[in-house]
Amino acid sequence: MTDAEAEATFCAVRWSTTNGEAVCSHCGSRTVYACRRPSGAPRWRCKDCGKDFTITSGTLFASRKRPLRDYLAAIAIFCNEVKGKSMLAMSRDLGLSYKASFVLAHKLREAMAEEMKGRTIGDDRPEAEVDGAYFGGYVRPANLKEDRVDRRLAENKSGKRQVVVVIRERGGETLPACSHRKARPCRGCAIASRKAPCCMPTKAQPGTTCTRASR
After folding, report:
1. How many CB atoms are closer than 10 A to CB 88?
2. For 193, how many CA atoms within 13 A lie in the half-sphere containing its CB?
3. Coil, strand or helix: which one is 195?
4. Is 34 a domain residue?
5. Any long-range contacts for 98-106 (C-beta under 8 Å, 24+ apart)?
6. 41 phi and psi angles, rounded to 5 deg
7. Which of 43, 59, 75 is the last residue of a domain?
8. What are the φ/ψ torsions at residue 187 (nearest 5 degrees)?
9. Model confidence, pTM
10. Helix, strand or coil for residue 214?
11. Coil, helix or strand for 7?
């Protein structure tokens, strides 16, 4: 992919509502004109507020150091992996250091979390199913039997266990939420804040993955 193709693809993805036409990241005006940098990097200037902005202004990729094709490749590699992507493998694929690929992957995760923030389900489908699972917080037992403790007791737990709650419309969208294991009231508030008033969580039928909707 050439620089022009990467630039056109990035514009089409970011400003999809305007078919790739630049929109001011400061005031939201569409009356802008191109004024590239002396190095040839894309830049626009707004006629309303008079401020300059680039293709990555107002995003997590602002003040970037890498070419646009590297970010597009990182997004494709990160999203196409079924079981996650190792940062060592991504650093080899993109020719980056481990630290750079690690920071880039966390930027992508932050962008995904920002997109899910404030989203609700149940607007067009009145039924949803809720289920959850616990992850992390495993305490490795001691090698010697006399040094082992009862890991079922609260004082012997690590306190790092998280619960992931997923709300799914029947035949529609899926919305995940993560909270601490001890925050049981907060989990109920999280479910209530993510569903529409007309949406009622129901218990799943036998054979489905939802078994805790009524709890």
Report:
1. 11
2. 12
3. strand
4. yes
5. 101/74, 104/71, 104/74, 105/74, 105/78
6. -70, 140
7. 59
8. -65, -40
9. 0.57
10. coil
11. helix
27, 59, 91 — which closes off a domain?
Answer: 59
pLDDT at position 126: 66
Q: By C-alpha distance, which of 180, 134, 190, 176 is closest to 159?
A: 180
Place of tokens 């403790």: 149
Average pLDDT of the chain?
78
Query: Which is nearest to 112 in space by CA: 140, 75, 137?
Result: 75
Give CA–CA dist 169/202, Å, rounded: 10
Beta bridge partners of 178: 164
Pairwise pLDDT comparison (177 vs 209), residue with the higher score: 177
Q: Report yes or no on 18 lying in a domain.
A: yes
Residue 38 has a CB neighbour count (10 Å cut-off) of 5
d(CA 85, CA 106): 12
Angstrom distances, CA of residue 212 to CA of 55, 57, 190: 45, 43, 15
CA-CA distances (angstroms) from residue 36 to 13, 54, 159, 180? 20, 9, 52, 48
**For the chain, what is the domain count?**
2
| C-alpha closest to that of 22 among 50, 55, 62 | 55
The answer to whether residue 87 is domain-embedded is no
What is the H or E stretch that residue 75 is in? Answer: helix 68-80
Confidence of residue 143 (pLDDT cuts 50, 70, 90): very high
Q: Which domain holds residue 29?
A: 1-59
- The mean pLDDT of 183-201, rounded to a whole number, is 52
Residue 204 binned pLDDT confidence (cut-offs 50, 70, 90): very low
| Residue 93 is assigned to a structural domain of this protein | no
- Residue 19's identity, in one-letter code, is N
Going by DSSP bridges, is the β-strand pair 44-46/32-34 parallel, antiparallel, or unpaired? antiparallel
